[in-house]
Amino acid sequence: MTRRGRGSTGPSRPSALPQGTYDPSRPVRELPDGRMVVAFHGDDDRRRVFDISRLPLPCWHQPLAAAVAERTGPGGGLRTFSAATTGWGAQSRLVKFLASLPQPPTSPDQLTPDHLEAFHDHRAKTTPTTALRDLGEARMLFTLTSLRDKVTAEVLDHIQRRLPTPRAPEPATAAPDAENPRGGEKRLTSGYSDGELERLLAALRADAAKVRDRIRAGEDLLRRFRADPLALDERDRVLGRMLERMAVTGQVPTPAAVRPSPFCPERQELAGQLFLRLRDLSPLMMLQAALSERNGETIKELPVRHRVLEDRAVELVIVKRRRGARRWFETVTWEIGAPGRELHTPGGFYLLLLELTARSRQRCTSSLLWSVWRNGHGAGLGVADDHYAPFQDSLSCTSVLPTVWAANRSRPLLADPQPSIGADGASPVTAAPGLPLQVSFNRIKTSMEVRRTKRMGGHLPSAAKSNTMQALFRNYLSGDPVITSWAEEVLGEALVDAEQAARRAHEQAAQAAGGGPRVLPGPGDADALTEGGLDADTARQAAEGSIDTGWTACADHDRHPLTQQPCQVTFLDCFHCGNCLVTRDHLPRLLGLLDALAQRRRELSDEVWWQRYGPAWVAIRQDILVKFTPAELQQARTEQPHDALLDLVENPWELP
Fold this sequence. Notes:
By secondary structure, the chain is mainly α. It has 23 helices and 13 strands. 44% of the residues lie in helices and 8% in strands.
């Protein structure tokens, strides 16, 4: 096959094929010593060999090996090192349990549903947190072609049933701390407050800048030593000579005048002049997680391969796990930013990390970004120095302890002070001192998801970046104190805006229709109404109730103030009309109308409710009821009718 590139194919031009036949390696292998193993090569480029021969029940080995190869193969569901290891653990536990029974099923055709039920009961008693997972993986194994034809129909029937409902675990209790000042159930994934996040990002950038300046200073000294050693003073010349040795061999010498020791701290400091160390990982990884708004697993597996787009952005393929088969890889484009701003942009910081890890990566030849130097004696390797990729073999093989980093800084990070609760349950004016800030990748991810959602105005389709809208709300936004406070603030502002809009609509309608309702507090007899300014005939009719409308009275139904024609508007518009009369006798019906509007508010959206009923509600609350005494309102409440007759003023098709 000699042709290369996309231009090697075209119409009437056959595709280039490799020479000879393709014979893929078989995952199931029988070794010369008689052992049977299954080779695994995952999508995360990690490998493992599962030894089937170590399991009991020899008659199970051949079909089980084929099933494990199918489950962990290219078309299976276990395509990462951790997933395959977890699945293998569940499968091996099942076989070992079956072998421990008084009458074990020596072959797959002897397996019964009672065996699977007994396995679940055993796991539920010993390890209840993983019982359902083990049973689910075992049942998944029997659906594969390698075992499906070798078990009975009763077993196949049994594995199609719904798994038992998991028992609700008791809420974990915790002592009061920065995240949970009152103790009790603790939410570990809640984000940071604005102040906590600002302090955390400032600390991460400060420590990242120290690492950057330290390695760049060492590289600069090495460059000057190679250019002209005699131009340096004696101290820099000695240090430059050691850096030259480190750059060529990758080994860190013991500084002069220092007692040789496998755990010499001076060697650690000298190694940091050119290489990234394990202790440097925490601030660098967390800052990259915050800038890129990705979780810790994705940050651990950042690749070296990338593409720079016009010096403005960097393009790379990242891994996002738990998305389903063949959906783990995603192409992202990260902004590089202006020179000197690499600590503020994800693309610029990614290129900086490539620079800081370059020398160690040359020694370990890893395809992943993170490559560091470590003391070989401390790692039990029997050598002085080692350069390795900490997450090459597994994401959990190297511990990254963010909280330890935060607590061991010269200026420890503290959570926001929490008000101390007195014995009487009241919060005093003074606040308790801040506790150490609990730092984790999950909390950083949650905080960044919350901030992005706020920037998008709460629009979940726009805010969903690396998760679905459902996962974003369920796992990051729901219950977070920052997003809850912001939502309450936005909702409060929306209600104020809606009320002000309804008020303006009422004022405009009232101004156009004669100035709004005329409220006559006090007695509702004809003499009192006449003294209130009504003519004798209108006062008499109002006292008798002959000019009453739905909830008020109308002084002149035949001449609307705006049209000078007979009134054609709905009774809800009476509250903006200059012909509207309100006396004390109308209060019971008005209070009943308010209750009906409150009920309708629970049935409609705020936008629809304010548009339909807001102006009338504002007129009643702010222009009518305020002119009556509390005693009059209390008396009217006792006479309030059960039916407010709101349905009679609306068309049936407008009802919710």
